[in-house]
Amino acid sequence: MDLGLVFQAIFLGILQGLTEFLPISSSAHLLIVPYLLKWDSALLNSLTFDMALHLGTLVSVLGYFANDWKRLVRAGAQSIRERKIGADSDRRLAWAIVIGAIPGGVVGVLAESKIEEIFHAPHAPLAPWAVIAIAALLALLGLALFIAERVAKHQRELAQLTLRDALLIGAAQAAAVFPGVSRSGSTLAAGLFLGLKRDDAARFSFLLGAPIIAGAGLKSVYDVATETAGGALGGNELGLYVVGFGAAALTGFLAIRFLLRYLRFNSTDPFVYYRWALAGLLVILALFWQ
Predict the structure, then answer these.
(1) Where exactly are the structural domains of the chain?
(2) How far apart are CA 53 and CA 220, in angstroms?
(3) Cα distance between residue 146 and residue 41, in whole Å
(4) What is the pLDDT of residues 244-256, one digit of tens each?
(5) How distant, in Å, are the alpha carbons of 15, 57, 142, 239, 246 from that of 22?
(6) Do residues 129 and 64 make contact, with C-beta atoms less than 8 angstroms apart?
(7) What pTM does this model have?
(8) 3-class SS letters over 81-146
């Protein structure tokens, strides 16, 4: 196995684990870093490898919130049996996740592959205009977070979340199909606009993202299985998937723990400033990087 490709797979896995949960856009970083470092591996730049990394972050969110998932699945099943939600906060949260995931799921099925082709044609370098577009989206979502921090009341808890709130946050999540927006960033901003406390907004963001990541990850598993059965992927290639997956899972778990603790007492402003700085750097690179 090529050690250079192993390093790249681990690096991209770490990058995915960090940026999937920090509000700075994983899709933007996974497009930009190979572009800047001139990593041209067709496998590591493929949508399938990207989805394998997302499977790693799915393991992160399932593992970190394991007790929550057990409770929510049980509450959801009980609500179906009894045909009512009632005042139980776990039942409301379970259905909020289901309803909130619908917009992102629909947009993902209809548009994700097309948007990927627009921003990054297969086996071709990232176009300068695409880099500028990603920079603009990074800056705009940063502005949304900046405003949300200043108009938010930071008073509502997760137990007070309504199904309407969930649908609005889910609609914000759907916008993350565009590189540079960020699933965690868009849903966190929406939660803040709706008055949620920062850590509660982040917690719902992570729970809400799990069904979307799972759907994309399962498609990745199917694609990899198909390519393996057809002989397109050998042991070395599968090894790169494994190390990238593992790096994303471990780093993602640590990123979730960090962000939830951080947001209990701190604002999202450092992430806003990072997004703006990165956006400015990308515009300069797009204009002058050869």
Answers:
(1) 3-288
(2) 9
(3) 37
(4) 999 999 999 999 9
(5) 11, 12, 12, 27, 18
(6) no
(7) 0.90
(8) HHCCCCCCHHHHHHHHHHHHHHHHHHHHHHHHHHHHHHHCCCCCCCCHHHHHHHHHHHHHHHHHHH
